[in-house]
Amino acid sequence: MNKHLSQPLFRHPDLVVAPCKFGHGVFATEHIPSDTTLEECYHLRISKEDCSGIIDDYVYSVAADDDDSQESSECYSLPLGCGSIFNHSDEHNTEYWHDAERDLIVFHTIKDVSAGEQLFINYGKDWWETRECSPENDK
Length: 139
Fold this sequence. Notes:
Elements (H helix, E strand, L loop, with lengths): L14 E6 L2 E6 L8 E5 L1 E5 L12 E3 L12 E5 L7 E2 L5 E6 L4 E6 L8 E4 L3 H5 L10
Parallel strand pairs: 7-10
Antiparallel strand pairs: 1-2, 2-10, 3-9, 4-6, 5-6, 8-9
């Protein structure tokens, strides 16, 4: 058995998904300090060729692993859990990284977050340009 399979994924106890002006968002129910892990998410790898339509709005760029069963072409990651529910802000308070050893997407705060505050990531300039639109920067 793979040693990583026995480790449960972490989800911060003070997170909740709730309705917001963007549909749904991830919110803090209590104060969460900067540099706090929020969630570890499994993710589905999707090749660039298979990524179209609405699914394209929910995928993240990740590097293809050399030992991955897919070709070494560009691929995207569809995070599960709260990972696909984080909304955008230029003044984001959350970032993510790919834990290659465990093959997880990990979200963490980069600023203190107050109770009731929504957690945002920055989708990046390319995300908006490929859709020929611009973000609503007001929270």
